[in-house]
Amino acid sequence: MNTAFIAAGSQYKQQLPQLTHNQQVAKLYRHSLKVLGSWAVDRTVFIEEASKLRARFDANRNCAPDKANRFLREGKEELQEYTHPDPYRIPFMPGGSMFMRNPPLPMDVCFPDGDIPADAPKVTLNPDMSICKEETGKSAVGQVLVDFTSKSMA
Question: Is 31 within a domain?
């Protein structure tokens, strides 16, 4: 690609927000717990390993900034090394084993004559089983694109 095309494209590219050091550490800790949850199947093993992980983070809490940056970089490298090849997904979410297994039928299919009972559900559900709401932007009425590489609804 030529430099003019790259320069034009960079104007429209979104800039990632700059996180503070504390936010980066909190993000690393949360992501580490999620990866740990993929490896530790038993809850007691997870709790034991999570307490060890928390102790490692607490041991380096008040260190010098240059040392803290080195710990953060090493932590990200270690997280990349231990990332599970097939991470745990909630079963009914995109990428889960039960995703769209029994999707709810439309009301006009259930009641073709139009006599919908009063106790029938009045809400429409998204494929991730959340309630369709226009104001939240999660309104999957009609066809929905599910990205199975990131395992999310688009």
Answer: yes
Residues whose CB is less than 8 angstroms from the CB of residue 131 and which lie 6 or more positions away in sequence, other chains included:
123, 124, 125
Q: Is residue 104 part of a domain?
A: no
- 14-61 pLDDT, tens digit each: 667 788 999 999 999 999 999 999 999 899 999 999 999 999 999 988
Number of domains in the chain: 1
* pLDDT tens-digit map of 96-135: 777 777 777 777 888 888 888 888 877 777 666 677 776 6
End-to-end CA distance of the chain: 29
Say which residue the tokens 């390993």 belong to: 49
Structure tokens at 59: 């041991």
